[in-house]
TrEMBL record:
Residue ranges occupied by any RNA 3'-terminal phosphate cyclase domain in the UniProt entry: 15-339
Function: Catalyzes the conversion of 3'-phosphate to a 2',3'-cyclic phosphodiester at the end of RNA. The mechanism of action of the enzyme occurs in 3 steps: (A) adenylation of the enzyme by ATP; (B) transfer of adenylate to an RNA-N3'P to produce RNA-N3'PP5'A; (C) and attack of the adjacent 2'-hydroxyl on the 3'-phosphorus in the diester linkage to produce the cyclic end product. Likely functions in some aspects of cellular RNA processing. Function plays an important role in regulating axon regeneration by inhibiting central nervous system (CNS) axon regeneration following optic nerve injury.
HAMAP family reported for this sequence: RTC
Name this protein carries in UniProt: RNA 3'-terminal phosphate cyclase
Assigned protein family: Belongs to the RNA 3'-terminal cyclase family. Type 1 subfamily.
Residues the record marks as active site: H321 (tele-amp-histidine intermediate)
Binding site for ATP: Q106, F295, L296, Q297, D298, Q299
All residue ranges annotated as the RNA 3'-terminal phosphate cyclase insert domain in the record: 186-286
Organism name: Zoarces viviparus
E.C. no: 6.5.1.4
Signal peptide residue numbers: none
Length: 366
């Protein structure tokens, strides 16, 4: 670990060049104790610099590690974080917009694992928002897989919040770990179960949820005939703030792999299209015979980098988000990643094995 040898310089515009660089660097800074200085934050984006959700995520990490944060304001393109000791207990982050609570969890969960006792993270913003995982993805896909690393957290959805108002609230309880175990996921097995939820909230008519669900089921049926597909249509009542509609469809395999496809309603988009979009996303992610979908790939990199031992995960095409997370993880830890293409006779699409010799981060506080 690079301790106290001055701060690590990170170029926020490299590769994917988005908020993910901030999340991975801030979390690793907090855990390794290395100060970081990130320049050119989101330089190529239509609205460069920090947005409310990035700012609240950085403040949350700084709060978690009693750190000091410079340059933390909306639109800022240069920030630095000098971490202190990781504090357990209660922490709150509020994007005050529909900024994603799932992205707040992405940045804070790894940090809370390395504190001295359990932490409660109260995260406020959008729970089912564009450009981010839906909270249902976090609970149904991310959670069971990340638990294979030895992570334990609970997620209580107190209120759902949608674009543009937000207003959602999720209470996450995280237990610390001594160290993370490596994970091997190389055999996909067969798809054994497909289920999901189609929802409407606020003033939107219930029929929209039913239409999304049946369009999704029809689309999946064309390709997968032998499984019962259960996607109930739900009207969100008490626990929803604002108006929204969307769908998430989850597939599970015989070896415990979990995949998803999801979509959210947008003004002027016919609801059948939303159902079809989610179904096609799911099908695309189970055709390649990898063990994780394209969205989980990059979210697992930080855990592979911190684990003690060698992890191996089979994926479909490696995303730019994943390559970016690897680049940052190798800058801030001793982890070593290799990606190998594997020829797979079962599927026309090639798969890849992402292998990581983890840095074996140990929790100094336990």
């Amino acid at each position: 670990m690079k301790m106290d040898s001055g701060s690590v310089e990170i170029d926020g515009s490299v590769m994917e060049g988005g908020g993910q660089i901030l999340r991975v660097s801030a979390a690793l800074s907090c855990i390794t104790g290395s100060s970081i200085n990130i320049t050119k934050v989101r330089a190529g984006r239509s609205t460069p610099g920090l947005r409310p959700q990035h700012l609240s995520g950085l403040q949350l990490v700084s709060d978690l590690c009693s750190g000091s944060l410079q340059g933390a304001s909306i639109g800022s393109t240069d920030i630095s974080l000098t971490p202190g000791k990781i504090q357990s207990g209660n922490h709150t982050a509020d994007t005050q917009t529909a900024g994603s609570v799932c992205l707040l969890l992405q940045v804070s969960l790894p940090c809370a694992l390395f504190s001295d006792s359990s932490s409660q993270l109260c995260l406020k913003g959008g729970t089912n928002a564009e450009m981010a995982p839906q909270i249902d993805y976090t609970v149904k896909v991310f959670k069971p897989i990340v638990e294979k690393f030895g992570v334990h957290f609970d997620c209580d959805i107190r209120m759902r919040g949608y674009y543009p108002k937000g207003g959602g609230e999720v209470m996450v309880t995280v237990n610390p770990v001594k160290e993370l175990q490596p994970v091997i996921m190389t055999e996909r097995g067969n798809i054994t179960k497909i289920y999901g939820r189609a929802f409407v909230a606020g003033v939107l008519p219930y029929k929209l949820a039913k239409d999304m669900s049946s369009a999704a089921v029809r689309t999946i049926r064309k390709e997968i005939k032998e499984l019962y597909i259960n996607i109930p249509a739900l009207q969100e009542k008490e626990k929803a703030c604002g108006n929204g509609n969307g769908i998430i469809i989850i597939a599970e395999s015989s070896t415990g792999c979990v995949f998803a496809g999801s979509a959210l309603g947008k003004k002027g988009v016919y609801v059948d299209k939303i159902g079809i979009e989610a179904a096609e996303m799911l099908l695309r992610n189970i055709r390649h015979n990898g063990c994780v979908d394209e969205f989980l790939q990059d979210q697992l990199i930080i855990f592979m980098a911190l684990a003690k031992g060698t992890s191996r995960i089979r994926t479909g095409p490696v995303t730019l988000h994943t390559q970016t997370a690897i680049h940052i993880a190798e800058q801030l830890t001793q982890a070593k990643f290799t990606i190998t293409k594997s020829e797979d006779e079962l599927s026309s699409n090639e798969t890849f094995i992402i292998e990581c010799v983890g840095s074996g981060a140990a929790n100094k506080h336990l």
